[in-house]
Every structure is written in structure tokens, then in C-alpha cells.
Amino acid sequence: MRHAFGTTFDVDGVYLNTPSIGVPPRPVVDAVSAAVTAWGRAETSAPQFDGAVAAARGAFAQLAGVPESSVALGTTVSGLLGLVAASLPAGSRVLTADREFTSVTFPFAAAGHEVMEVPLDELPERTRAADVVAVSVVASADGALVDLEALRAEVGPDTLVVLDATQSLGWLPADLSWADVVVAGCYKWLLAPRGAAWMALSERLAERVTPVQSGWYAGGWDAIYGLPLRLHPDARRFDLSPVWLAQVGAAVALPWIASLDAATVRDHAVGLANRVRRGLDLPPGESAIVAVRHHGAADRLGVAGVRCAVRGGAARLGFHLHNTEADADAVLEALA
User: Fold this and answer.
1) Where are the beta strands (DSSP E) in 31-124?
2) 3-state class of 74 per DSSP?
3) Which numeric CATH code is attached to 2-25+262-335?
4) Cβ atoms 74, 247 nearer than 8 A
5) Closest CA to 317 of 19, 4, 13
6) Rounded distance, CA 336 to CA 319, Å?
7) What's 46-259's CATH class?
8) Is the peptide bond before 228 cis (omega within 30 degrees of 0)?
């Protein structure tokens, strides 16, 4: 058990796999457990979850720096971006980074658009040749950060910008409000159960998107039977029916994360990552994710009980709220 940032985490051992699955704090676990218990006792009804949906949506908007009215609810990043991809003219040119996470690229490729991959550091200067730029704020594979300031400065007025913040929201404070799309899943750095994702849309893009996935939740309780089509006037018209237990957890996790001092969280996470970088004679970085390419690193970490993932042949380590200097030192000891 660990105490950090005013809460408790039931973490045993060295867990550095937040980029794959985040570890929820005890209040999130308790809220979801209580909801499951109530479900098992037949003590639940659908309207009881509306408050959780609203709380999570509002906290996502706060974290992303966007109006709450611009936020649509989904279940996965790829599902939400599928709506965007389907709204584009046929054969649109979509610029992305090499080795981009496929939940970002596959929806555009599957829709028949021309998806062009370029090195991440070259992406801002290449935006003029694209109709859409779709990229992760922080790369899943190795934690590399896109240069948001350069991207914003270089992108043309007619080019749409799609930012996947799944690997950044929760530890990296950044101005994302200028993008046409800000999308993120909940189960990594946002520490909620898998099954919830949100997407903020700019006004100019929202006007072009057809809510082809809309069901009753996109219209609300007055739209559960019969025609005509009647949907919410704001981005809720793109909502999917929520995964209730995921929303229960998100309604606790996201407001709590949004209440923390974002700079302090970043300094904590990046500071631990840089402690490992220094110990391994790697240059300092600005990411909470460290890709360790030392020979046999993943095997040695596994033997030492350090939980992480392997991406592109490197051991990928992610430092978040529950991690400590002792965790970073355990990595260095295992790789000494």
C-alpha cells in the first residue's frame, strides 16, 4: 500500500506499466466495487449513472482545457476517431508520425484516406501538405512528445488537427484547446476502468460530423422510443450509451486528478523518469515514459519483479502518481 497525492494505492511491488494499464487509487476501487455490489443486489437503475457520466465528462473537459459542451462520450479512441474519419472527403491526406499508435491511424486508413507517416520531429514542417494531422501528444511506443508549439505555428488554417491525449492527460499539462479533436481513453494515466473515452470537437469540425453511431443516449431520456430523430444540440449528440461501471470509476478518478496541481504531477513523474535516465547515462527528457534499450533489460527487470511492457524491443517504463524514488532505484539496481 502506498500513500501519494492525498490518496492511497494498493500497489505491491514496482509497477511501471501505467502506459498499458493504470493503477486506480483506493477511492476509485471502492466506488466501482460498491456499484458492482449494488448491481448484484438489484439495487441499480439506469438513471443512477447519469451523475457519474456528467462528472467524468466535466473533468475531462477541465483536463483537456475545452468547453464541456464540445465533449462527446465513447468507449474507445478508435471508435470515436472513426466518426471523424467518416466525415472527411474521400481520399483526404492524413499526416501522422512514424510508429503512431494504430487506434489513431487505422480509422483513417480503413476509411480509404491517404495516411502518410513521417518522423515525429519533422511532422510540424510537413503539415502544409496535409488535410489532417493526426498524432499522439505523447507517443505510446517510447514516450516521445510532439512539439505542440511548432505544430500549432506551422499548421495551415484549413488543416484539421487531431490529438490523441491518451498517454498525456493525467500527468502532462499542455494547451490542447486549439486542436480540432482532443481524444483520450480513460484506463491508462486517468486511472479509471477500461470502457470510457471522450472526444472534444471544434465547432468547425462538429458541423461536418454525422452522428451515425447515435442511439438513445445521444438524445436523452425523452428520445428512447420512436421517430423523429431528436438529438442533443451540443456534442452529446455523438454520445454512445455509457459503460456504466467505467463511468463510475471515471467520475471519481478524473475529478481527483483535475484537482491536483498539474505542474507538481508533471515534475513528480518526469523527475522519476529522469532519475532512471541519469542512472543509465541517458540524456534527460521531458517525458514520464522511458524506453530502455539496454541488452536484456526487459528480462532483467522481470526477474527483479519490475512490471513494465516491451515495445519495439525496448523496456517501456512509465512513472505516475503512485511511483517513488525507490521504484526508480529498483530499476537501476536491476540493470546495474
Assistant:
1) 71-74, 93-97, 114-118
2) strand
3) 3.90.1150.10
4) no
5) 19
6) 20
7) alpha beta
8) yes
| AA identity, residue 336 | A
pLDDT in tens, 249-294: 999 999 999 999 999 999 999 999 999 999 999 999 999 999 999 8
What is the DSSP secondary-structure string of 8-52?
EE---SEE-BTTTSPPPPHHHHHHHHHHHHHHHTT---GGGGHHH
Q: Are 175 and 158 in contact (CB under 8 A)?
A: no
CB neighbours (10 Å) of residue 119?
10
Neighbours of 332 (CB within 10 A): 13
Q: For the chain, what are the domain ranges?
A: 2-25+262-335, 46-259
Max Cα distance, the chain (Å): 67
Cα(331)–Cα(336) distance, integer angstroms: 9
- Computed from CA positions of residues 145, 279, 262, 166, in that sequence, does the dihedral angle turn out positive or negative? positive
Give the C-alpha separation, 195 to 303, whole Å.
32
Which grid coordinates belong to 17? 506499466
Characterize the bridge pairing of strands 93-97 and 114-118.
parallel
CA pseudo-torsion sign 58, 243, 73, 99: positive
Residue 91 to residue 130: CA distance in whole angstroms: 11
Residues 196, 165: Cα–Cα separation, whole Å: 14
SS3 at position 135: strand
Rounded to an integer, what is the distance from CA 328 to the centroid of its chain?
A: 24
158-213: pLDDT as tens digits: 999 999 999 999 999 999 999 999 999 999 999 999 999 999 999 999 999 999 99
pLDDT tens column, 113-122:
999 999 999 9
Comparing C-alpha atoms, which of 142, 148, 201, 193 is closest to residue 172?
148
Q: What number of CA atoms fall less than 13 Å from residue 98's CA on the CB side?
A: 8
DSSP assignment of 220-282: -GGGSSSSSP---SSGGGGPPPP-HHHHHHHHHHHHHHHHS-HHHHHHHHHHHHHHHHHHTTP
* Cell 505544430, residue located: 151
- Helices (H) then strands (E): counts for the chain: 10, 14
